[in-house]
UniProtKB/TrEMBL annotation:
Keywords tagged on the record: Hydrolase, Metal-binding
Alphabetized GO MF terms: metal ion binding; UDP-2,3-diacylglucosamine hydrolase activity
Keyword presence, Metal-binding: yes
Domain Calcineurin-like phosphoesterase, residue spans: 23-225
Upper classification of the organism: Bacteria, Pseudomonadati, Bacteroidota, Cytophagia, Cytophagales
Membrane spanning stretches: none
Name under which the protein is recorded: Predicted phosphoesterase
Amino acid sequence: MGLQGRDHSISISMAKAKEHKTKIAAVGDIHVRETDRGKWKEYFKLVSEKADVLLLCGDLTDTGRVSEAEVLAEELKNCTIPVIAVLGNHDYEREHPKGIRKALVSENFHLLDGDYVIIGDVGFAGVKGFGGGFDKAMLGMFGEQMVKSFVQEAVDESLKLDNALARLDSEHTNLKKIAVLHYAPIKTTVVGEPEQVFPFLGCSRLAEPLNRRGVLAAFHGHAHVGTLEGETAKGVKVFNVSKPLLQQEGYDPQVYILEV
């Protein structure tokens, strides 16, 4: 009877754990254009049926036009689950990030830039990130001021991510932590791109807060012909969910779903 009672309690505990699982759908580099009206309607409807939350990992627009963000906002009306996003380099092309934010942010759409949002028992922290290279080939803060400024941008993005994750830890307990990025935090998930462009696809500095804060998984885009999955030196799962890569990998629809 004792063994049966113990087994029963374990099965109940496992059932409760399953009840609290969250299905995270993630995609990056959707590059919405002004001519895309109606193109994304079925996509967002289908994703809403498959997941509890959608992550958009940068390059929401194709050329950084506010009008492109307005098209995306209209298309997202077909998405019935919360949407969490970060901007990408394409979204800065015309230096209108504030206009893009204004066009997109709503009760159901959260655009992160060094802050976080909580959905159920999962805390999502996000930044765009920046380049700088990986591991021993990471660019150091030495030489011309232009080089130092480039490196400083990556440092600042890493600090913003760390601060967001630290606030999650201090203000909330027992949350699973997910990081949303555009640039890659590890080299593994950009492999497939020409090595010459690795320094412009991400930076190892972004991996430091992932390891320090016990993040469960991180999602990014930007590397269109990279590698789907990797992990940091301390075992944090990292997923490159660039839409072109997901298409190349045979995902239909082009979205990656992780259950946590």
